Amino acid sequence: xxxxxxxxxxxxxxxxxxxxxxxxxxxxxxxxxxxxxxxxxxxxxxxxxxxxxxxxxxxxxxxxxxxxxxxxxxxxxxxxxxxxxxxxxxxxxxxxxxxxxxxxxxxxxxxxxxxxxxxxxxxxxxxxxxxxxxxxxxxxxxxxxxxxxxxxxxxxxxxxxxxxxxxxxxxxxxxxxxxxxxxxxxxxxxxxxxxxxxxxxxxxxxxxxxxxxxxxxxxxxxxxxxxxxxxxxxxxxxxxxxxxxxxxxxxxxxxxxxxxxxxxxxxxxxxxxxxxxxxxxxxxxxxxxxxxxxxxxxxxxxxxx
Length: 305
Hints:
50% helix; hpI Integrase, Chain A; 3-stranded antiparallel beta sheet; mainly alpha; globular; 14 helices; 2 domains
């Protein structure tokens, strides 16, 4: 996650993201600790050589971040917003709290939650990635630098995927396509001055931490918009194998964390089975027929006869 960057481009934020990536990939505490120790020593040498003016690898609080990431991986749906009203209230509050009251801040929040996408992915969506005939968005990873020299995170090196665009965001997407123009490489979501939106930009411009605390969502991070979308899709009955493709998960186990059933859904499953058994396979209902050993035959037995 950091090896491709020149030493001068390694920032405290880049190290933070790398550590979170190590945790998300299942690295143990000792692995993270030892990896950080090596990185600190490398950056210390760069500091002594005058290449950098401070050591960005000396981060604090990663143990707390490790605990949060573990909670996120164990039960990501617990970090989701409860419903559509909560999402729109959050989006509106972020716009109002921003200095420029730019509607785009709310747009990107709603789009990220409804598509179960990362903010970095939403910032990279382009006109050519949207298919308005099927209303799907193909999430890609940009491999060549944009005119500003920036390579989007895109799928963060993971598999590309197709994401449905639900009715609630289609009008928004259509308006953004019109505003962006016919160029298929034009971005749909940009800042008020046309700049690229990152999680840090969104946080600072909208006073995210202050807003979510005021609304009672102290736990809510920008990445939790993705958890919100996946949780809503799971609760809507999207099959787990389809949800896995939408999420871009490599393991089905990761997707299944969004499918924790409650007591009501378990009882409903029993009612569904009862209804199925009473659909009337025969005039007297379902009939079970015992098969005796004498009536069973195998392919080998048939050949012997």
